[in-house]
Design brief:
single chain, alpha/beta, Rossmann fold, six-stranded mixed sheet, globular, four-stranded antiparallel sheet
Length: 313
Amino acid sequence: MNARTDHQLLHPRPQLSNAHLDALEEETIFILREVAASFERPALLFSGGKDSLVLLKCAEKAFGVGRLPYPLLMIDTGHNFPEVTDFRDQRAEELQAKLIVRNVEDSMARGTVRLAHPGESRNVHQSVTLLEAIEEFRFDALIGGARRDEEKARAKERIFSHRDSFGQWQPKAQRPELWTLFNTRLTNGEHFRVFPISNWTELDVWQYIERENIGLPSLYYAHQREVVERRGLLVPVTPLTPAKGDEVVQARTVRFRTVGDITCTCPVPSLATSPGEIVIETLAADVSERGATRMDDKTSEASMEKRKKDGYF
C-alpha cells in the first residue's frame, strides 16, 4: 500500500452531499428568478470572489449564457487584487453580461468620500459609492453573495433585506419570510438587497465549486507570499501594506479564504491546491473566514451592524 492510499484510509475524503447541494442550488435559482420577476431595475453585485462566482454560476443556470436579465455591478476601491479584477472581467465576458464598475476613487474626487489619512482602508467607504450607483441607475434591487455564517450581523439579515430611502438597513423593521413568501413592496427611493446564498456555508460553497468545476482567481489556492505577523493575522507585504518597524518579513505558503480590498484582507497558512483539499481544511476550521482573514472585522459585531445600517453590502 502506497503512502497516499494509506493517508486516504486514515483521513477519508468526505462525500459530497449532492442532494444538499441540489436543494441549495434550487433555492438560489428560485430567488434569482423571483428578483427578475419582482423588480424593474435589479443588478447583481459581482466582485470576482468565490461567493459571487457561485452566485453567477446559479444565475447562468437560471437564465443561460447571454440572457442574464440584470447587469453585474462592482464597486472598486482601487485597491483590489489584480488577479481578482482580471478574473471578474473574463467571467463577465464569457457570460456576455453587462458589467458596470464604479470606483471609490471617483467618489473621493467628488468629495463624497474623505479619508482620515492616505493609508486608511477604503473598504468601508464602498457604501458611499454603492449608494451613488444606486441613485445613478435607479436600481431597485441589488443581489449580493453574503452568507449568514460569515459574521453575526449578517446572520440577522433576511434574504430580501429592505433598505430605506437613505440606503439604511433597519434590523427591527425586517419583514417576515415565512414559507419562502417574500414581501417586495417598495415606495419611492427604497430598494432591496437580496442574498440568495444566505443559507449556504463556506463548506457548501467549496463543495459546489468542486462539483461544478467553477474557476476561481489563483489567490484562493496555495502559493508563496511574503507576509508579516500582526495582531494574530498574516498580513501580505505589498506597497499598500508594507512591513512596519521591526516586523519580520517571512515567505509563507498561504491561500486566501476571502478576497477583498488589499488593505484589509489577509491569507491563511495552507497547502491546499484544489477545491477538494480546501473542503478538508474547511471541515477542520474553527474560525469563520472573515474572523480569520479580515483586519477591518477585528472590532465588534456592532461595527459591522453599523456599516450595514449605513448602506454597506
